[in-house]
Amino acid sequence: RIAYVNGRYVAHRDAAVHIEDRGYQFADGVYEVCEVARGFIVDMTRHLERLDRSLRELAMAWPVDRKALAIIVREVVRRNRVVNGLVYLQVTRGVAPRDHVFPSPDTPSSLVVTAKRVDPAASARKAESGVKVITVPENRWERVDIKTIGLLPNVLAKQKAKEAGAQEAWFVDPDGTVKEGGSTNAWIVTRDGALVTRPADTGILRGITRTTIFDVAAKLGLRIEERAFTVDEAKTAREAFVSSATLIAMPVVAIDGQAVANGHPGSVTLSLRQAFFDVAEKSPA
Length: 285
Ligand code: PLP
Hints:
CATH class of the largest domain: Alpha Beta
Family: Belongs to the class-IV pyridoxal-phosphate-dependent aminotransferase family.
Shape: globular
GO molecular function, one term: branched-chain-amino-acid transaminase activity
Distance between the termini: 17 Å
CATH topology of the largest domain: D-amino Acid Aminotransferase, Chain A, domain 2
Bound molecules: pyridoxal-5'-phosphate
CATH architecture of the largest domain: Alpha-Beta Barrel
Number of helices: 8
Protein name: Probable branched-chain-amino-acid aminotransferase
Helix content: 25-40%
Function: Acts on leucine, isoleucine and valine.
Strand content: 25-35%
InterPro entries: Aminotrans_IV, Aminotransferase-like, BCAT-like_C, BCAT-like_N, Class-IV_PLP-Dep_Aminotrnsfr
Structural class: alpha+beta
């Protein structure tokens, strides 16, 4: 495997950043994960647009310009011969002697890009069985709309899920409404077939997959209600699912050990999943 690290393509096993990289010391960085499907990078424009927003919100410079980054992403995909898989890219505020305040403005930001293959058959099998989620109290900061590498609450929540035999944890506000998963957005399907997901300006990450599912829903003639929903509403919904670049639309079959509907993946979720690739933007790798 090959990784890109600050201007060089290097063997993945030797890829490293300096110990004084601010990503390492302060989680002072942002990232993106893009899906690669059938040789195409999915929704690359939207991912780079969100990266631009994350960088701007944190007053961080682009490590290279947007066109150059797109070329590097393609090159990493190509060099790893990824046809189906994931691209990970991370930008940090660079390497500087440890000090909380920003380093001098001429400090170049760090850029790392990796890619890995994912077996599409394994993803399909996962969608056939669906995933289980647990709920945990929301304990993250207010700026989860920025896709930062500071993911400790998400790490702890997802570990707790794993220990409970589940695959995702939903962060829940004190009022009982679901925010999002540790690495996914949360959705339900109502009895009358509408898709419900929380408004993106209410303490969640605006998922790229979430945005594209709005387009998929329009194409399939499905109504979307952008509003908060409670854990109780999700437990009694017709379907529930999570979305991310890694999982696309993935059925949720149980919440806190309680089956959703008949405990099997729902047909609306599976139809969204099926139509997703046709609707999404496809950039040749
Ligand atoms: N919410 C959180 C907290 C995430 O970490 C992610 C993805 O990693 C998502 C939502 C889904 O976003 P996307 O669809 O862009 O992958």
